[in-house]
Specification:
Blueprint lengths: L6 E5 L3 E5 L21 E5 L15 H14 L5 E6 L1 H12 L4 E7 L8 H17 L1 H8 L6 H6 L1 H13 L2 H13 L4 H6 L4 E6 L7 H8 L6 E5 L5 H4 L1 H13 L4
Parallel strand pairs: 2-3, 2-4, 4-5, 5-6, 6-7
Antiparallel strand pairs: 1-3
Helix pairs in contact: 1-2, 3-4, 3-7, 4-6
Length: about 260
């Protein structure tokens, strides 16, 4: 790898790969992954520009998917189940397009296969201009609380403070590059239609980051997909940890690894 890509690998058994979202890092899975370590090899990468991974000059969902594939090749892993949260789901979709034979299962965790709407693209462009003018700090301080239900954010100030403190340390260039990569990503709904592995959708009823219309539309792409809608926002691994762990555990038990 030309740039350092950081990841953790723990546990034993079939491989479960957990991909974080935008302005997050692999530490978001620290508590969530614990029940899976007895039965699965759990890999948690930091995507380029986040966590301990170096930012790349050029980035796209396809490049990030190739980075993940390099990890699997390095570890000698031929097949794994992907769990992609938010932007991590966009990376998982790019991976599914490039390496479908390597997926034993795919969970889109508050994510979807569609491209951004024109309004969303324009909002992301405005975000980039805002960061170029004011820096990424004010942006992440506004972004992260909006990912949670207001009541949860109010009751868990230490968690939000920790996430904001980490996000403030990421290079502004890395955050901007990832934002641009989300703007440029194509629609991959046809990949969902034709993907041969089992699918799981975890949806937040009060998720403001992923429109409800997108969540409903993706479920119609595959009638055999497992789909769960919970009374949470965008961060189910924190807002409904036990419920989402159980949903994922049930999904994993039915996979052919």
């Amino acid at each position: 790898m030309s740039k350092v890509l950081s990841y953790t690998i723990l546990g034993n058994g079939p491989t479960l790969l957990l991909l974080h979202g935008f302005c997050e890092d692999s530490s978001m899975w620290d508590n969530f992954k614990i029940p899976f370590l007895n039965d699965y090899t759990v890999i948690c990468p930091d995507l380029p520009g986040f966590g301990l991974s170096e930012a790349k000059d050029q980035i796209s969902m396809e490049i990030m998917a190739s980075c993940i594939n390099e990890i699997l090749e390095k570890e000698g892993i031929e097949k794994c189940c992907f769990v992609g949260h938010s932007m991590g789901g966009y990376v998982a979709m790019a991976f599914a397009e490039k390496y479908p034979e390597k997926l034993s299962g795919l969970c889109l965790f508050h994510s979807h296969p569609f491209e951004d709407t024109e309004d969303k693209k324009e909002n992301r462009r405005k975000t980039i201009e805002f960061m170029k003018r004011w820096g990424s700090g004010p942006f992440v301080r506004e972004l992260i609380p909006k990912l949670f239900k207001k009541e949860f954010a109010r009751d868990n100030p230490d968690l939000l403070s920790s996430m904001i403190a980490k996000a403030e340390k990421y290079l502004q260039s890395g955050i901007i590059a990832a934002t641009d990569a989300m703007i440029e990503r194509p629609d991959r709904s046809e990949i969902i239609r034709h993907l041969k592995c089992p699918l799981l959708f975890i949806v937040g009823e009060f998720d403001e980051a992923i429109p409800a219309d997108f969540s409903k539309a993706q479920q119609s792409l595959r009638s055999d997909a497992m789909a769960y809608t919970l009374p949470i926002a965008h961060m189910g691994m924190f807002e409904a940890v036990a419920e989402t762990q159980q949903i994922l555990s049930s999904f994993l038990m039915n996979l052919k690894h």
